[in-house]
Amino acid sequence: MHTIRGKAEASRRIVGICACLFFFVVFQGRSDARDVAVSVAAKKVYLQADTLKLNVELDSLFSRRALDAIASGLITSVVMEFRLDSDRKSKALEYTLGMRLDHDIWEGRYRVVRNTGRLDTLQTAHFDTVRTFCSILEGLTLGPLPDGSDFRLRLRVGVTPISVEQEQRSRRWLNVLQKGSLLELFISLDRPTKRTPWIEVGQFSAEDLQ
User: Fewest CB atoms within 10 A around its CB: which of 25, 89, 122, 132?
Assistant: First the structure.
């Protein structure tokens, strides 16, 4: 009898912890999405051979909430999604770029790892350098140009601060929970669950790229 009660109590605790983690992740994503007002300050879309390339500069990538979190030493995940639609029925071109920003408040240094198909790492003591590294992308390879004559390029961004303690605590529970329970809810803990609305980068035609 005690064994059955013990199992039931353990199950209730696991479900409770999972629910708390779920609401933590959802709340973070929603509040950050409302707080970010990202805009495109400059852009250039061009062809290199048959590959579509992009230079883009974003304004206000980091919200006040994100800046406060970074200043306090929280790990921050940045995800940028690009989508190119054409006037044809062909599949849209999609590209995702991810960055991880760490701030060592004791040493006063920042470290950013940016994944653009290869890993680029920045280490600096100056946040302005971090802002430039994260906000200005040059020679970004989006992929082969889809069929069509007119195109529309859009972007959406997610910036999510995650505490070291929360990350470690959540990953410990991920190791405990059995697959098929609520595990799938937390697979993307280090990625934003909510992102900005799609932002217009630009519209252009195939002739513009010649």
Answer: 89
Backbone angles phi, psi at 127, to 5 degrees: -70, -30
Distance (Å, whole) CA 52 – CA 173:
42
Q: What does the pLDDT look like over 10-40, one tens digit per residue?
A: 555 554 444 444 444 444 444 444 454 789 9
The model's pTM is 0.70
Distance, in Å, from the CA atom of 8 to the CA atom of 12, rounded to the nearest integer, reads 6
Question: 150 CB contacts (<8 Å, ≥6 apart)?
Answer: 86, 87, 203, 204, 205, 206
Kindly state the helix (H) or strand (E) to which residue 99 belongs, with its residue range.
Answer: strand 93-104
- In tens, the pLDDT along 146-163 reads 888 899 999 999 998 876
What DSSP line would sit under 162-200, residue for residue? E-HHHHHHHHHHHHHSPTTSSGGGGTTTTS-SS-PPPEE
Alpha-carbon span 32 to 54, nearest angstrom: 26
83/183 Cα distance (integer angstroms): 29
Beta bridge partner(s), residue 155? 82, 199
Query: Which whole-number Å values give the CA distances from 30 to 38, 63, 74, 113, in the listed order?
Result: 15, 13, 18, 24
| CA–CA distances in Å: residue 132 to residues 37, 47, 69, 192 | 17, 24, 18, 21
Exposed / middle / buried, residue 36 (Cβ in 10 Å: 0-12, 13-18, 19+): buried
